[in-house]
Amino acid sequence: MNEEQKWKYIEDLDDELLKGGAILSEWTTFQAKDAEMAFCSGAYLSSILSGQAAIESHLRFDRLNENDLKSLSFFDLINKSCLSEKLKEELHELRKFRNKWIHVNDPDEDHDLLSRPKYYENELAEFAKVTMKNMLRTLYFNPMV
């Protein structure tokens, strides 16, 4: 997908998923916009990280009145959310995928990455596409009609 096609993909997701309006915090809006810009420019790992940040911010914002909010991990926020079970499962996949890229146990073990960079670039591109969809599914889950 070229940049124009990626913006069209996001526009189509908005049309498909947003039924009414959505209330988002400024943090969530900023992070989601950054995730979309990163995705469309081909910075796939950045789009995944920003997308996950937007989801986490939104889940915290959605549960604003709870006292234990600051201590909840992304894992707990997903589990305690009112999202569908299918979306919760997909967000856990995002969390695991993100952790694989962020918490590199042995940075010296890079032979596969160096020998198959296209494989990893394609993996990131595909997962970034899924992340954009799941980010918007989360942000638009409880629309104002």
Strand content: under 5%
* Strand count: 0
Rg, Å, rounded = 16 Å
- What shape does the CA trace take? globular
User: What is the H/E order?
Assistant: HHHHHHH
Summarize model confidence as the mean pLDDT.
Answer: 92
Distance between the termini: 33 Å
Helical stretch tally: 7
Overall number of structural domains: 1
Could you estimate the helical fraction of the residues in percent? over 70%
Q: Which ranges are low-confidence, i.e. pLDDT below 50, for 5 or more consecutive residues?
A: none
Q: Helix/strand-derived class?
A: mainly alpha
Q: Tell me the major beta sheet.
A: none
Offer a quick outline of the entry.
71% of the residues lie in helices and 0% in strands. It has helices at 3-17, 26-41, 44-62, 74-80, 85-102, 111-115, 117-139.
Description:
- The chain has 145 residues and is mainly alpha-helical.
- It has one domain.
- The protein has seven helices and no strands.
- The protein has helices at residues 3-17, 26-41, 44-62, 74-80, 85-102, 111-115, 117-139.
- The longest helix is centred in the C-terminal third of the chain and has 23 residues, at 117-139.
What attributes does this structure have?
71% helix; 7 helices; mainly alpha; 145 residues
Write the layout of secondary structure elements.
Layout: H1 3-17, H2 26-41, H3 44-62, H4 74-80, H5 85-102, H6 111-115, H7 117-139
Helix pairs in contact: 1-2, 1-7, 2-3, 2-7, 3-5, 3-7, 4-5, 5-7
